[in-house]
Amino acid sequence: MSKMIDEETIENVCILAKLSLNEEEKKKAREDMQRILDYVEKLEELDTGNAEPLSHIFGDKNVFREDIVTNDDAREAMLFNAPRAKEWQYQVPKTIL
Amino acid sequence: MKQYEAVIGLEVHVELATKTKIFCGCSTEFGGAPNTHTCPVCTGMPGSLPVLNKKVVEFALKAGIAANCKVSRYCKFDRKNYFYPDNPQNYQISQLYLPICRNGWVEIETSAGKKKVRIHEMHMEEDAGKLIHDEWEDCSLVDYNRSGVPLIEIVSEPDMENAEEVIAYLEKLRCMMQYLGVSDCKLQEGSMRADVNLSVREAGTRAMGTRTEMKNLNSFKAIARAIEGERERQIELLETGRAVMQETRRWDDNKESSYTMRSKEDAKDYRYFPDPDLPPIHISEAWINDVCASIPELREEKQERYQKKYGLPAYDAGLLTESRALSELFEETAKVCGNAKKAANWFMGEVLRLMKEKSLEPEQLRFSPGHLADLILMVEKKEVSAQNAKRVFERVFEEDIDPVAYIEEQGMKIVEDTSLLNDVLNRILDENPGPFSELLGGKEKVFGFFVGKLMKELRGKASPDTVREALAKEIVKRS
Hints:
The complex is a heterodimer.
Chain A: H1 7-17, H2 23-43, E1 64-65, H3 75-79, E2 85-86, E3 89-93
Antiparallel strand pairs in A: 2-3
Chain B: E1 4-15, E2 52-53, H1 54-66, E3 70-71, E4 74-75, E5 78-81, E6 91-94, E7 101-110, E8 113-126, E9 130-134, E10 139-143, E11 150-156, H2 163-180, E12 192-202, E13 212-217, H3 220-239, E14 247-252, E15 257-263, E16 273-274, E17 281-282, H4 285-294, H5 299-309, H6 314-320, H7 324-337, H8 340-357, H9 369-380, H10 386-399, H11 403-409, H12 418-431, H13 433-440, H14 445-458, H15 464-478
Parallel strand pairs in B: 13-14
Antiparallel strand pairs in B: 1-11, 1-12, 3-7, 4-17, 5-6, 5-16, 7-8, 8-11, 9-10, 12-13, 14-15
Helix pairs in contact in B: 1-4, 2-3, 5-6, 7-8, 7-9, 9-10, 12-14, 14-15
């Protein structure tokens, strides 16, 4: 039997993901997450004792760039999509440091 | 009151001195106008792809190997998830599961002697942007120039007990990084930052107390004050029967006290997972060997060599090796003039004096060692007086003038011309019979009067020593 997703877990995930869900949405999210865990439980039926943990599926390694400056000042383009900007900086709600 | 001891571990962030950021070709230069060094990668635009700067791996390897760490032959990056406006991707790319280096140590020296501080691990990660509070509109402004600047985080074991050890450890790391050329480690510019983990326990006991983490320490002085303050605060709590809470505290150096930033209750769950955009790194034996070969002679070896090979006192060897830049200037000067002791005297005296007077760092020195060597040789050959040489060196120090040509031009060059000296000497004595008879009568002050007159007449063509000697001989001859 896989771990049960309880009310508390959903609350915690909401805090971490900065989501505010109503009761209906919470119920739905809980069911979805439970299904994910149940699926993972199915995978656990396989014996993976001899398999290396897989973190990347393409099998690439050592993809590097040289330490050469290639980018110019692109402030205008970068700030183009900013909802609010001031003196070439992104303007955001007051954040307590 | 019971006796307590502090247990201290450090997390040190060092900004690497690469030209570009860790995952994009934006410049890492400090102090650019806001957001001039940004691109879709370092501002976390959807669809952008980070590509690792090879130099970052090389620098991290250098630092790790120099600190006696074991290199992870296979390492990768992980995402650390959190929301904050200085972090545009909503995750920081860091290393949790397989950091590049582990299990090292550095040796520190304090008034209590030498001691090893163990390094738990070193990992590569990206820096965050900078937030400024805008009082006018009561909002925050974000500059992402620093976002994506490469860092290594050096995590120590809790092996330190007091501020003196912590500062010795930080100075050790700073010196090491500067010698390796991987970072300039300027605390003021934030290229070296330290978080202090501290707990207290009853002296002699083994169990660890609850620790706090202190942030925002911008100078060695602030670190020392914060450690003392936090130690006192925790002891006070324990003495009055209260508990230390596990929390992150922010040090306010103006108020000389700290306050809670966040406590364990809302402690962050970073939900780390492997970054799928960045393929893993395999570090071959050959690569490690190359990096080992590129590690220069570090301070301790240099200090020892200066004492053994040059016969310098330990104190001088210590000062001359405080920075790699200064030691290199010294060594070059010593090599050209062929006299390490004389060169060391000039550095310990004039060079350090002028640096202090003009508040210059060793990296800012502009004189060529060859010019100082020429000057040292001229003093040795008695071609210029020691006093004039010091004056000339000030010009060498500031403008890197050629001292040989300058001394000629200024008529400071001493040419020992015996016949000229004798002619002038006899003429001056004959012209001043009054003072001369006073001198013969034993009035010693008049000796100086004649030396001065002679020096003026000879305009530096003879050294004061030679003039004195010739005058003394003449007195004996004429009396």
